[in-house]
Specification:
With 810 residues, the protein is an alpha/beta fold. The protein is built from 27 helices and 24 strands. The chain binds adenosine-5'-diphosphate.
Amino acid sequence: MPDIQDKRTASYPMVPIRDVVVFPAMMVPFVIGRDSSVKALEVALKADKKIYLATQKDASQDSPSSADIYEVGTVSNIVQSLKLPDGNIKVLVEGVQRARTVRVTGAAGYFRAEVEVEPVPVVSRAKMSLLTKRLNLLFEEFAKLNPNISYETIVQSTRKTTPERLADTVAANLPIVVEDKQVLLEIVDPAERMTKICESIEIEIEKIKMDRSVQGRVRRQMEKAQREYYLNEKVKAIQEELGRGDKDELEELKQKIEAASMPKDAKEKAMNEIRRLQHMPPMSAESTVSRTYVEWLVAMPWKKRSREIREIARAEKVLEADHYGLDKVKQRILEYLAVRQLTRKRSNGSILCFIGPPGVGKTSLGQSIARATGRKFVRLSLGGVRDEAEIRGHRRTYIGALPGQIIQMMKKAGTRNPLLLLDEIDKMSMDFRGDPSAALMEVLDPEHNNSFVDHYLDTEYDLSDVVFICTGNVRHSIPRPLQDRMEIIDISGYTEYEKLKIGRQFLLPKQLDRNGLKRKPLRFEDDAILELIRYYTRESGVRNLEREIGSICRKVAHKLVRSRKKIKLEDQVFDISPGKIQDYLGPHKFRNQMAAETNEVGLATGLAWTEAGGEVLLTEATTMKGKGDLLLTGKLGEVMQESAKAALSFIRSRSSEFSLLKDFHKILDMHVHVPEGAIPKDGPSAGITMATTIVSALTGIAVRRDVAMTGEITLRGKVLPIGGVKEKILAAHRAGIGTVILAKDNEKDLKEIPDSVLEKVKIVLVDTMDEVLDIALEKPIKRKSRQQRDEYMNDPQPPQLEGGEQAGVH
Ligand code: ADP
């Protein structure tokens, strides 16, 4: 056989092979079965064991023609052949050289191919070495990523070979399709072939990397899903173990919904939520939100009511039993209850509102009404509520949303007809988050409150069976529209005598009971209670009195328990007399002896009316050299400041008559101060007090400390009436004031003052400032006659101030 190295062409038996491309220098085992191929093999074996192997274009063809076979193949040596029992032959061949088919003949019953070897172009060594290096690196990386390829074995076997051999070996081992391998086989130029192989490897590396990252992502997702599934299963298992599977729980909720007798809309909402819950993982945040919502719906009292007591006589008894005095208030409450009963069906009952200082029994009256009518009692404090959502709830879209206070209170009451006490309605404020009073209006409106919609519940709730009672300290800070809805009942402070009665009959028994001293030998003298009222409290109501009584009771209880072992109980009598109070409560907290204090120049006693009831308010004035400035301090409101200016103008207009220092308004500065400077004060009722102080400061005549006054002043010196008379007189009484000056027009208010107070406090009704000064100043002002006044006015020389800063009389 001619050597193809020498000759350009040669002829060999040809075997068309399937699914494999044989590269030079590569060992390939395969099985030959087709007759023509067996024959070709036999011919070759008989000759020089050389055979031409070319790949079929379509592996499925059993008898391909020469056109169905690729034109480039490999001349190979047959290394081994083995006849198998089924007649097929297993052969092991080693590729020798790539060759191109020139012509194929099949006449002798097998393919014989005439092939030629194409000349290999010369490539510079440097280029080859570069390409070899790159190929090596890429292949190494590829082999590392691909566990099916043993890089070491392949590279070891090619280390000492030529670059061309290396390229063929790598090409043979690449996991690429037959068509691509055939392309590599057909490239004769080694440099070009190596470049193409490098590209193929790069593509394969990319593919593997992409595969891995996708795989990683898929795996992570799978892991997360699996983890959740696993945890959920576990939770289910735990719940089952505890005897309440998720299903059971939903079932339980459903039953509760059925049992709750909800209106149609609410029930539909609840059932919808249950349907949603069935498709949610039980521990997800969403499902918690849904469940909480359903639980709220279920927990609301839709139908349940307390049995109301309609007997007015019984209500009267309860009110009487719980509270001392307050006759008018009790009467109005009974009227209210009667009207409510008669107009029930028309539901146009108005809302009661108790207004008065702290501790006068507003809340406890509410409790009594609840008791008298057989309703549950719930209390909602509106102090500081500034957001509509606090009344009406947040929509469920907010995280952590809850129903508003009204619905929360209804749940707390557990019945649909409780008495809901809206406390501190005057302390509600309004800001950018919406106006809570608007929401409250809806709640209190009997025409609309049968379909109150809370933002959270999102379904109508009927409030028409609820009795609303509001309380507050002052009337003026309740929004007008709310006031119009309400029937306001004023409750004023108590007199000392009333406090004593309340203390003895109500507070003391309550505290004894509360502190476990009910049946114990404890004697509380009336004088001791009076001592508490006078020297340990200063209030309109009885809240602190109750606290102080409670405090003594606790101390007694402590003593009793400590000494129990030593002395027999029956022998122990605790006698609380006025003298012992200091032992229990320490020194007096207040001194109520205003009248006993010395009269001073520039210091007058006024009476103020605050949220906490009436109060005694001192007013100071002083003058100093200056240029006529009026300085007002003590956090005075605008009205009060104007009142001070009016007082001063009145005094200036009368300066000649009062024999004041001529042109005092030009050469003196005036400072009016109302102590307890941090507490804001306002209103016109301090007008006559400020005028009196200023006159006192200018004339140097002291003001009587046992006289208190309250009234507005006009520029002409008229005294006008003011409000809060009862509270103010009670405060004066508390402070030991003997005389109170009031405007004549306030006479009508005196009807409300208990006789016991009027016996102690003398009320003087006045019309003009002159009368005020006559009563309040220690000495009468030396008034000038008309002639003296004219002379004074015409005197060109202003008198000089003598010595000190205080301006005196001239
Ligand atoms: P308020 O709501 O007006 O601030 P509370 O209702 O809290 O006052 O009253 C404070 C305490 O004084 C309560 O224990 C209450 O029972 C008691 N109290 C107030 N007024 C009377 C009264 N007229 N008779 C009996 N107890 C009273």
